Amino acid sequence: MRDPEHSQGDTDALIAQLARDARLRRPLAHPLRRALGWALLALGFAAAMVWAIGPRADLAERLGDARFLCEQGAALATGLAAAAAALALTVPGASPLWRLAPVVPGALWLVTLSLGCLRDWWAMGAEGLRLTPDPACFLHIALIGSLPGLVLYLMLRRGVPLSPRLTLALAALAAAGLGNFGLRFFHAQDAALMVLVWQVGSVALIAALAGLAGRALLRWPGAHAA
Amino acid sequence: MKTAQGRTREAVALEPLMTRAQAGDNAAYRALLTEVAARMRRLVRRRAPWLSAEDTEDLVQDILLSLHQARGTWDPARPFLPWMVAIARARMADNARRYARRAAIDLAAADLAETFFDAAANTTEATVVNLMSVRKAMDELTPAEKQAVDLLRLREMSLAEAAAASGSTVAALKVAMHRAMRKMRGTLWKE
């Protein structure tokens, strides 16, 4: 059994050890700036994947379609906001409002797709809301989000796991959101309900799974997994 | 007045030390950690007065290790104390969860030990099997983890004594011990 003086001696020894380990450690940049840097890398990777797989035949026409641009803009903004929020959550003392950053673009994304469902139903009736299996969406989103997701995870590890589950869920939302953004440049599927279920559904599933792994993957030094 | 003076002292003393620590100044970092340890000790005693002196000190050490990991996240343009307190609060919450979990595991382990090592109830063969289980769990450990268990649990040395005896560091022993306990619990509970 140790006495209090011994315990305090352990702390003094730990302080000496940590002080010896101290090396130059530049302060991390603002989360938004880091998120922008990450987004550039993620978009570069997505562009490379689109080039490798081959862009969709009607891409030029889609780029002139306001609805397509609106949905893509909302997906991109959601991914970027989620990345900034995830990075901010690893900074002690950062505003808790950061965790709400993806709410507005995410809601805009869902609203544009929901309105798209209504328009499809109005234009084509029940045929416009037909749901067919499209599991390739999940694989493509996971593929395009893989490298950016890994990079973001390594960036998160430079901070601390104050809310590991939410942090990792937001990071996965960011990576998968940008994955979905890239997917739509080569995957010719624009029926709003299909996009909502298979693409946004895949993004949500990936974020939820990552959130479950949060405590195991983002840990304090020497801490147990929950 | 005293509070105002204290606040002024915090603002003057800690931010410059942390700025110098981020620049790699070992002496400033040591002074900062010493000051933080004293303040965190007071904070932990105030927030969790039921903890033993040993557990309080373990928690202070966890907070220091966490500060070390997090030191790149402090922005010199922002005050130091809110940043430090956010780390301390998170570590205290984690510690409370761990403490509750450990208490539950220790209770279950005590029940198991009573069952396993009750001479009247167990045969010699059963005792041997149980000891083999523990030995098997030890076999899963790395040499550093085995040494940590040996020095800290079997010989009941303090961290500082074990560090001196093994030529290791307090920080390395803490990490090795945490990992060893987790692995052994995993192995024994699987059986």
General description of the model:
The complex is a heterodimer of chains A (226) and B (191). Chain A is built from nine helices and no strands. Chain A is mainly alpha-helical and 226 residues long. Chain A is elongated and about 75 Å long. Chain B folds into two domains: 2-96, RNA polymerase sigma factor, region 2, helix turn helix motif (Rna Polymerase Sigma Factor, Chain: A, Orthogonal Bundle), CATH 1.10.1740; 122-190, Winged helix-like DNA-binding domain superfamily/Winged helix DNA-binding domain (Arc Repressor Mutant, subunit A, Orthogonal Bundle). With 191 residues, chain B is mainly α. At the A-B interface, helix 1 of A face helix 2, helix 3, helix 4, helix 7 and helix 8 of B.
CATH architectural name of the largest domain in chain B: Orthogonal Bundle
Straight-line N-to-C gap of chain A: 28 Å
CATH topology tier name of the largest domain in chain B? Rna Polymerase Sigma Factor, Chain: A
Low-confidence stretches of chain B: 1-12, 119-128
Shape of chain B: globular
User: What is the strand content of chain B?
Assistant: under 5%
Helix content of chain B: over 70%
Highest CATH level, the class of the largest domain in chain B: Mainly Alpha
C-alpha-based Rg of chain B, rounded: 21 Å
Please give the domain count of chain B.
2
Which secondary-structure class do the elements of chain A indicate? Answer: mainly alpha
> Would you list the SSEs of chain B in sequence order as H and E?
HHHHHHHH
Number of helices of chain B: 8
Main beta sheet of chain A, described?
Answer: none
Tell me the distance between the termini of chain B: 62 Å
Look at the structure and give the mean pLDDT of chain A.
Answer: 88
Structural class of chain B: mainly alpha
